[in-house]
Write a structure and sequence with these properties.
This protein is α+β, with helices and mostly antiparallel strands. The chain has a single domain, classed as Gcn5-related N-acetyltransferase (GNAT) (Aminopeptidase). It is about 30% helix and about 35% strand. It has 5 helices and 8 strands. Helix 1 packs across helix 3. It binds coenzyme A (COA). The site of coenzyme A has 22 residues, from strand 5, helix 4, strand 6 and helix 5.
């Protein structure tokens, strides 16, 4: 089980089933889902329950493929950040989103810093990478501010709503 990471603005901690309401509320927003490859819209309580259930199952595994944190602010979960497709001692993919009402406060810049440190230190990763839709200026900036380098553009990387979308590939290595 991952330990919580506390900072001034938020706590990163494992998901609980009681987070269903917050996650459903913040994820059910087109301005959030349009930038993500796999968040359905509309996002129902059933979607939230299924997804959080999966995270709780992963928390029990010894070497999980994905480690996902809830971003807790005050008494609710404002979003999520995690490492996916983890190859311990080698690489993982970073993914994140934040509810619209929390945007612009430097939260994701700080959360990325904490999770990158966690990945490099605890999982001994050498490469953390992220795919960002070309239209997603905010995410590109969050990654650049954390020392990620643009490696290129992956054409038709994502198929979403029957459209093929190009994505920037950003990575940070050590
Ligand atoms: C992208 C997202 C994670 C940014 O989170 P945030 O906490 O608002 O970001 P921060 O406040 O840390 O901002 C970091 C930088 O990005 C810039 N930025 C944030 N949103 C921006 C936007 N929409 N357009 C341009 N710049 C933006 C900020 O100005 C800041 O740069 P600066 O310090 O040079 O001024 C958030 O908007 C979000 O969750 N969006 C929807 C889902 C998503 O895109 N997920 C990522 C998929 S790869």
């Amino acid at each position: 089980m991952i330990k919580p990471i506390k900072s001034k603005k938020f706590t990163l901690r494992p998901f609980r089933i009681s987070d269903v309401g917050s996650i459903r509320k913040h994820a059910n927003d087109k301005t959030v889902s349009r930038n993500l490859s796999s968040l359905p819209h509309p996002y129902t309580e059933k979607d939230a329950r299924f997804w959080i259930g999966k995270q709780i199952e992963l928390q029990r595994q010894k070497n999980p493929e994905n480690i996902v944190f809830a971003i807790e602010i005050g008494n609710q979960v404002a979003g999520t950040i995690g490492l996916h497709k983890i190859k311990c001692g080698h690489k993982a993919e970073l993914g994140f989103w934040l509810g619209r009402e929390f945007w612009g406060g430097g939260i994701m810049t700080d959360a990325v810093k904490d999770v990158v440190n966690f990945g490099f230190k605890n999982l001994k990763l050498r490469r953390i990478y992220a795919g960002v839709f070309l239209s997603n200026k905010g995410s590109a900036r969050v990654l650049e501010k954390n020392g990620f380098k643009l490696e290129g553009i992956s054409k038709k990387e994502v198929k979403k709503d029957n459209k093929f979308i190009d994505a920037y590939i950003f990575a940070k290595v050590r």
